[in-house]
Amino acid sequence: PKNFIIAIDGYSSCGKSTIAKALAKRLNFIYIDSGAMYRAITLYFLRNNIDWHDHDAVMNVLHQVHVELHLEDDYTQVLLNDEDVSEEIRLMPVSQNVSKVSAIKEVRKAMVKLQQKMGKTKNIVMDGRDIGTTVFPDAQLKVFMTAEPLIRAERRYKELKAKGEEISVREVLDNLKERDYEDTTREESPLRKADDAVILDNSHMTPEQQLEFVAKLYKNLL
Ligand code: C5P
């Protein structure tokens, strides 16, 4: 039988990874965080002061960069050329630039190829922006997540605060609106709901309720 693919797309800071992770654990699927890959590349661009308008420079980076995801028990370890950057890719400098880098056609092409390879033979849950539309248009289950912007900002603010980042709710809100704007308006596979995706607005849902909702969609397909 063919491997099963669950695509979870949606706006920034909707809790996609929380649900995707929990779902993968419950179904014994492999969880893949596609955003982490774009974040790792972005970190490389920032550290090396790469001008991402320069086509040759971008192509060079794509040849030099090796991104690996390792699934640990409850989190994804992200290796950028063998260095563990799991923490650093979540901080604001990367969050503020990742939508610019991920809009570059060549970057997307390379990442999509890697992602498709990861889902070739295994049962996976992958979250991102274009998984149901571009990476796996034939995914058996597609979910499109959304929530009210202020609720998303407050959730993310709490997380960043807990990690000691000095930031206000306003800044978090501005960043996620900015990313949503860039992600939905870019030319190359913009964020949008696939026609056959099920919408999950989790503004007023607990993670447990969300998990039940998606797990039920899956069960109904079997
Ligand atoms: O999922 P996360 O918020 O970590 O993703 C960071 C950024 O990476 C997104 O804002 C988006 O610009 C980009 N991204 C993308 N396509 C994906 C996953 C992430 O363009 N499949």
Automatic annotation (TrEMBL):
Keywords: ATP-binding, Cytoplasm, Kinase, Nucleotide-binding, Transferase
One example GO MF annotation: ATP binding
An example Gene Ontology biological process: nucleobase-containing small molecule interconversion
Domain (Cytidylate kinase) ranges: 6-219
Family of this protein: Belongs to the cytidylate kinase family. Type 1 subfamily.
Gene3D superfamilies assigned to the protein according to its UniProt record, in alphabetical order: P-loop containing nucleotide triphosphate hydrolases
Nucleus as UniProt keyword: no
InterPro entries, per database record: Cytidylate_kin (IPR003136), Cytidylate_kinase_dom (IPR011994), P-loop_NTPase (IPR027417)
Protein name according to UniProt: Cytidylate kinase
